[in-house]
Amino acid sequence: MRFSNDDFFAYSNKLFDDFFRNAFYQTNMLRTDVKADEERFYLEIELPGYNKDEIKMTFEKGYLTVEVTKKENQDKTKYLVRERTEKDWRRTFYIGSIDEKQLYAVYHDNGILTVSYPKKKKSEKKTIEID
Asked: How is residue 38 annotated by DSSP?
């Protein structure tokens, strides 16, 4: 079978795309949408297939870290194909210095973890007297 130059480049581009799609597939984990209203920001983090007790959140120096650890399956079933991995995932978000008591998180039945925190109030421009 002979390839024309166009076929060769189309085929090599497909290989290149497939390689990077597979190599960076893990970036699709913990996909997050960010919303805001007048008072708060909302992170909606996708965690399908995880239980609440498999999720850990920490907040330190303005960084919110969400970690998930899938408990090892003790099922001895032999699978022909297994696409649902049991990996640990972590994602960190910089949300700034806020009082950690103002962070609120709820895990919904649909596999979405919603984390909300207040917006920082904009400081008004003030004129400073010079002595």
From this structure: S
